[in-house]
Design brief:
Elements: H1 2-7, H2 9-18, H3 20-25, H4 33-50, H5 66-74, H6 80-87, H7 95-108, H8 111-124, H9 128-140, H10 147-156, H11 159-172, H12 175-187, H13 195-204, H14 206-218, H15 225-234, H16 239-256
Helix pairs in contact: 4-5, 5-7, 7-8, 7-9, 8-9, 9-11, 10-11, 11-13, 12-13, 12-14, 13-14, 14-15, 14-16, 15-16
Length: 263
């Protein structure tokens, strides 16, 4: 339908008479300004009025992805009036609508507006799902500017939100920020979430990863074997011996974390 609708205006018009939403979805970005405006507004208002999620993460085989459909219509950047209407959704009481605003801005390539909105959302939106989705979009767009806010959320959040924020924070942190972030995660009591330690191990190596495991055991968490070894074996060693043990244990940790076929 998308191919035919994009190449044959008469077929698209007939489809729109039968199913206006389907007609709006197949409208190409090369269509006329008024036609694109009407289609984008129709799709947006359909979700705003019903207050339902407009997922931008539909499977590839999905035939309908209205986030991509609206984004395609707005990408030429010549419908500022429609963009303003979409942005007005940030004041909605509906978390679904607030989330949909971010997804549409993302799909339309409006990165500057999106980054501003992500910062506002991470700073104070009262809905956990909306905050989680804003963090995921920050990762998708590699918005490293959002790291300080995501770090703050990661250290304060609970359960699934903490898991998402720690994972996103670890991926957005620079190499200089990553180890400190992972250690803060352990000190905050979030050590059960492994993504920060995993990122440290793969980006910075086994030595820094052992520091994270040491912090895990020091803060009362049930550490994995590596952390228990560090705690029990090294606690009474002089500093000069600790350096040698740290090197030896880091090598052991590096080997044991490899797949058996790669050892």
């Amino acid at each position: 339908m998308t191919f035919v609708g994009g190449s044959d205006p008469s077929w698209r018009e007939a489809l729109a008479l039968r199913d206006p939403l389907a007609g709006a979805r197949v409208l190409p970005s090369a269509a006329g300004l008024d036609e694109r405006r009407a289609a984008a507004l129709l799709l947006w208002q359909h979700y705003a009025e019903r207050r339902v999620w407009m997922s931008g993460r539909a499977p590839r085989q999905s035939l309908t992805d209205d986030v991509k459909a609206i984004g395609k219509l707005l990408r030429p950047n010549d419908l500022p009036d429609v963009v303003d209407i979409v942005l007005g959704g940030v004041h909605s009481q509906s978390p679904q609508t607030r989330s949909n605003v971010m997804n549409v801005l993302s799909s339309a390539g409006l990165s500057k507006d999106l980054l501003t909105l992500l910062r506002v959302t991470l700073s104070g939106d009262d809905n956990e799902v909306v905050r989680r989705q804003s963090a995921a979009l920050a990762r998708d767009h590699h918005f490293k500017e959002a790291f300080p806010l995501i770090r703050k959320c990661a250290l304060q959040a609970k359960h699934l939100e903490a898991q998402v924020m720690i994972s996103v924070g670890a991926s957005l942190a620079t190499d200089d920020e990553l180890l400190a972030f992972a250690l803060d995660v352990e000190r905050s009591g979030q050590g059960k979430h492994w993504s920060a330690e995993y990122e440290v191990r793969h980006r910075l190596g086994p030595g820094p990863a052992l520091k994270v495991l040491t912090a895990r055991s020091e803060h009362g968490h049930d550490a994995v074997l590596g952390g228990i070894i560090v705690r029990d074996v090294m606690k009474d060693l002089p500093e000069t011996r600790k350096l040698l043990w740290t090197w030896a244990l880091s090598r052991l940790w590096e080997v044991t974390r490899r797949p058996c076929w790669a050892r």
